[in-house]
Write a structure and sequence with these properties.
It contains seven helices and 24 strands. It is rod-shaped, with a radius of gyration of 39 Å. The protein is α+β, with helices and mostly antiparallel strands. The protein has a five-stranded mixed beta sheet with strand order 2-3-6-10-9. A five-stranded mixed beta sheet has the order 13-19-20-17-18.
């Protein structure tokens, strides 16, 4: 057996790189026979880096540790007939450090798992909670009408689609179609908002005003300013879609904007809205719906809106009934 009474530090090599990635490398790379056999050892309490150096010299082993983990820490006194693994275990006691064996049989000093998790909040052991505002189902619907394919979930459609909800129309106080589709980054208005006709560009391609659909049919909407007071949903299909929706009046290839109308619901609808905007413009809107007949087989939904005051054209007002 070998006995260590006075530390032998002649073989210690301190690596002080720019980042001090590995501060201590001791001994030779192959595993030593001494490391596997108990060796009589007596070491006083001393700085941890010196204690690990003495163990590396005594057992002829490699000990690797980041300098930042050892700085300022002390090792307790140890004695007895110990293997290298037992000596390192006792030396690290109370330091919040542990070790793992390298492929060549050496020892790599590292922080204990619990301590490492506390020092690194983004470790895999932590739970990351992400919060956000509801989007699908309120601002936009999860389903959209895709021509003869029917109403599909937006993830199952062969086109890029957006379906603006009735809640979005109300929350943004959109009056005309141009007010609503302004929230779609792929659509631009190519006519003044106050003009007699409103056309759009979808992904840079022109979409004529009379190519706006109403429940899948063209030529029904107001050719100048399509209104959305009666809209339960507005579907936007981007890209050529004539194969599934038909050919619009002006044969636009940019895509399709389709207004899905409100329908009478199971519960009667009685809603009145008054508004005031700009400097002198007032509006009044009524939404009335009712089902009737045997088993509520029939239904009717009426939307009325009037605007008066400082509108675009002098001495004029605006009335719409749907």
């Amino acid at each position: 057996m070998n006995t260590l009474n006075q530390p032998r530090r002649g073989r210690n090599r301190i690596l002080m790189g720019a980042a001090s990635a590995f501060a201590i490398t001791l001994g030779s790379l192959p595993i030593s026979v001494l490391a596997q056999e108990p060796t009589q050892i007596e070491m006083p309490a001393q700085p941890l880096n010196e204690a690990l150096g003495d163990i590396g010299n005594l057992y002829d082993i490699t000990v690797i540790a980041p300098d930042a983990l050892l700085r300022g820490k002390r090792a307790p006194a140890i004695s007895g007939s110990l293997t290298a693994e037992q000596a390192i275990t006792q030396t690290l006691a109370g330091s919040a450090l542990t070790y793992r064996r390298s492929a060549n049989g050496g020892f790599i000093i590292e922080q204990e798992r619990d301590q490492a998790a506390s020092a690194n909040p983004t470790s895999e052991a932590d739970t990351i909670v992400v919060t956000g505002k509801k989007y699908l189902g309120s601002i936009v619907e999860t389903e959209a009408g895709v021509g003869f394919l029917g109403t599909l979930d937006y993830k199952e459609t062969p086109y890029s689609v957006t379906a603006f909800s009735e809640e979005q129309i109300a929350n943004t106080q959109s009056v005309a179609l141009a007010d609503l589709v302004a929230f779609d980054p792929t659509i631009r208005l190519n006519q003044p908002r106050s003009g007699s006709e409103q056309g759009f560009t979808i992904r840079g391609l022109k979409q004529f005003a009379n190519d706006t659909g109403f429940n899948g049919l063209f030529g029904i909407n107001n050719i100048g300013r399509a209104s959305i007071e009666n809209a339960a949903r507005v579907d936007v299909i981007r890209g050529p879609a004539t194969g599934i929706i038909g050919v619009p009046l002006s044969q636009s290839l940019a895509g399709t904007i389709n207004i899905i109308p409100k329908r009478a619901e199971a519960q009667p609808t009685r809603q009145i809205t008054a508004g005031y905007f700009g400097r002198s413009t007032a509006s009044f809107q009524a939404d009335v719906g009712q089902r009737f007949g045997t088993d509520d087989l029939f239904g009717a939904r009426l939307n009325f809106r009037t605007t008066d005051g400082g509108v675009a054209s002098p001495d004029s007002d605006e009335n719409r009934i749907f």
